[in-house]
Amino acid sequence: MEDKIYIVEGKSGGWDDHFSWIDGVYKKPEDAEERKLKMIAEHKIILNSESPIKGLKIDDVPDDISEKDMIKFGEWQERIWIAKEFKGCVIREFKLK
């Protein structure tokens, strides 16, 4: 029997700032597939999340909120922008010698 591992590779960015990362290494292909689907679902949840500050949208520049709310809003904006750059993920199979 041939030993294999399955690597889940995430991809993000555009033409000039594309990057990829190893998100997980698995012994079974079904575990890798489960992680891949979970990553995709997590990004959809982030993209559909509502602003922590009622009434503000992703491109708003708030000027009349507290510093604490500004931090929450900025963190939310950053998560959305990063999630928008997500290009999906692939599973790579490697044979072990």
Brief sketch in words of this structure:
The chain contains two helices and three strands. It has one domain. Helix 1 crosses helix 2 (67-85).
Description of the molecule:
Helix content is 39%, strand content 28%. It has one domain (4-95). The chain starts with a strand and ends with a strand. The model has no long low-confidence stretch (mean pLDDT 91). A 3-stranded antiparallel sheet has the order 2-1-3. The chain has helices spanning 29-47, 67-85, and strands spanning 4-12, 19-26, 86-95. α1 (29-47) packs across α2 (67-85). The protein is elongated. With 97 residues, the chain is α+β, with helices and mostly antiparallel strands. It has 2 helices and 3 strands; from the N terminus they run ββααβ. The relative contact order is 0.27.
Give the secondary structure arrangement, pairings included:
Layout: E1 4-12, E2 19-26, H1 29-47, H2 67-85, E3 86-95
Antiparallel strand pairs: 1-2, 1-3
Helix pairs in contact: 1-2
List keywords for this structure.
alpha+beta, 39% helix, three-stranded antiparallel β-sheet, 97 residues, 2 helices
Biggest sheet architecture: 3 strands, antiparallel
- Please, how many helices? 2
Give the domain tally. Answer: 1
Q: Looking at the structure, what is the overall shape?
A: elongated
Mean pLDDT: 91
How far the N terminus sits from the C terminus, by CA atoms, comes to 11 Å
Class by SSE composition: alpha+beta
Low-confidence stretches: none
Q: For the CA atoms, what is the radius of gyration?
A: 18 Å
Q: Tell me how many strands there are.
A: 3
Main β-sheet, spatial strand arrangement: 2-1-3
Q: Estimate percent helicity.
A: 25-40%
Strand fraction equals: 25-35%
Q: Provide the succession of SSEs.
A: EEHHE
